[in-house]
Write a structure and sequence with these properties.
By secondary structure, the protein is mostly helical. It has a three-stranded parallel β-sheet, with no helix packed on it.
Length: about 150
Amino acid sequence: MKKFLALVLAFVMLIGNVPHAFAQGGSNAWQMEIPNILDINEEYIKKNSDTLFSGENVIKDPVLKEAINASYKREATLPVTKEMLKHVITLSPEKCLPHNFGEDAHKCKSIKGMEYAENLQYVSLPYQPIEDLSPLANLTKIRYINITGNGKV
């Protein structure tokens, strides 16, 4: 009986620490719930497209550029502007772009330009060969960073 109660107690303690790790509606129940990629909706984007999309490209990495443009439902090669980056709250190329973690062509190698993402809160860059995280250094709203399997930073 003591072994059974100890086992039940251990199970309850284990489960008590897990609820915050569950994703809502995702296929991977152990994934942290990450908010939307942008802090704006499609209506805002349509009304403010001239302001959002005018300006020079500040993202050179093609995978990162494609991921951010996908958030805005834009063609992958279009410029990503400072104004667009102000509305990015989640940086997660692997969430935006379906790919095989083994494919180097679909890995983000640089986050240069993300210094303009002043509202960025969640950064998820697992298994991405990024060598420089300094673009994130002055972003004060970041609450979560995942660089698991990076090996370069």
